[in-house]
Specification:
single chain, mainly alpha, three-stranded antiparallel sheet, two-stranded antiparallel sheet, 5 strands, 7% strand
């Protein structure tokens, strides 16, 4: 009887501390194991401006996802990898982001067929139900905390991959937050996909930080360089490696020729001139001086690359409320004339 009770206690501890994290997608629910392979067209009242916003986003996010696949495949084939959790995460990245690339490619195939000869039109911008059609089920995120102290040995190879993938994920958060923060966005399908990106990749970043912290050696002696990160060539000058490389953070400053003034705003002429919507907490300088990168608007500052993940949940909830109030679920039953 005592052994039985102990076994139940161990099982409960596993379920509470070690169970894989799983959250249903906001836009492409996993295959339920039954039902027809039915897809639904997703329509929006679509304009040339809407097309450009979506096309710019896809042009940035698709190669970024492809880079994550390349990095994960290299890691899984690398000698010296040891962490079971990190290996599971790499496999999940390959599986899940391959499906997200399919989502992006499907959106792109639809929007490229839009005919704007007479201006904005009702047009199919996505196909909902791809997971059901393809019988796709996402790989869950491995447990952030180790179940037992010795169950996940972390090697230098693991730390190197985790650090590189953290920076890579932070680039995805940057693009997702930029897309969701654009008031001119008009594609509810991509909006919901980006809310999934924010939630999933922030959680995976937390997992990778936990794995790095479990390394028995000096993780600060293991540094990454830009050439270790695939699919981010256009973003690399905006990324901050200081956190993962244990170096001094990027200088917090305003753009050239501007000063940090009242209310933390960047202003001209010694705070007497025009101020920007950028604030002094932006690292380095704003994109206006470097040119816009794919997936970002001109003049937008790079986000703090560690991100405020406690704030992210609030932002996601606010965005969902706004989307529901503004659009409801008008596109959920596409083809009804809206």
């Amino acid at each position: 009887m005592k052994k039985f009770i102990l076994s139940l206690a161990v099982l409960a501890a596993f379920l509470l501390t070690g169970a894989q994290s799983y959250a249903q997608s906001l836009i492409e629910e996993d295959y339920a194991g039954f039902g027809p392979k039915v897809t639904t067209p997703w329509y929006e009242y679509y304009s040339p401006q809407d097309f450009k916003i979506d096309q710019d986003y896809i042009t940035g996010m698709r190669p970024h996802h492809a880079g994550a696949l390349t990095m994960s495949e290299k890691y899984l084939n690398a000698e010296g990898r040891s962490s079971a959790r990190l290996s599971a995460l790499a496999g999940g990245i390959i599986r899940n982001q391959t499906f997200e690339i399919l989502m992006l490619d499907t959106v792109q195939s639809h929007i490229k067929r839009a005919d704007f000869s007479r201006g904005a039109v009702w047009h199919q911008v996505a196909t909902k139900g791809l997971a059901q059609r393809d019988r796709f089920m996402r790989s869950p995120t491995p447990p952030i905390q180790r179940i037992f102290n010795g169950d996940d040995v972390v090697s230098a190879t693991d730390v190197l991959f985790a650090k590189a993938m953290i920076v890579h994920h932070e680039g995805a958060l940057m693009m997702a937050r930029d897309y969701l923060g654009n008031p001119d966005v008009n594609n509810g399908y991509l909006e919901r996909m980006n809310l999934d990106v924010l939630r999933d990749q922030a959680q995976e970043i937390a997992l990778m930080h936990n794995i790095i912290a479990a390394y028995p050696g000096d993780q600060c002696a293991i540094s990454i360089t830009p050439d270790m990160i695939d699919g981010m060539d256009d973003m690399m000058s905006h990324m901050d490696f200081s956190s993962v490389n244990c170096t001094a953070p990027m200088k917090m400053a305003c753009c050239d020729g501007m000063d940090c003034c009242k209310d933390m705003k960047c202003c001209k002429d010694g705070c007497k001139g025009d101020c920007t919507d950028m604030d002094c907490k932006c690292p380095n300088c704003c994109c206006k001086d470097k040119g816009a990168m794919k997936g970002m608007k001109m003049g937008q500052c790079p986000t703090d690359m560690m991100g405020d993940h406690s704030q992210m949940k609030h932002e996601m909830g606010h965005k969902m409320d706004k989307m529901t109030d503004h659009k409801g679920m008008k596109n959920h039953a596409m083809g009804h004339g809206h």
